[in-house]
Amino acid sequence: MIRLLRVFWYTFWLTCPACQRGRMFRSLFVMNVRCPTCNVVFERDNGEVTGGMAINTALLCLIAIAGGVLAITTTIPTVPLLLGVGGFMALFGVLFYRHARALWVGVLYVTGSINEDV
Ligand SMILES: [Zn+2]
Question: What is the pTM of this model?
Answer without folding.
Answer: 0.82
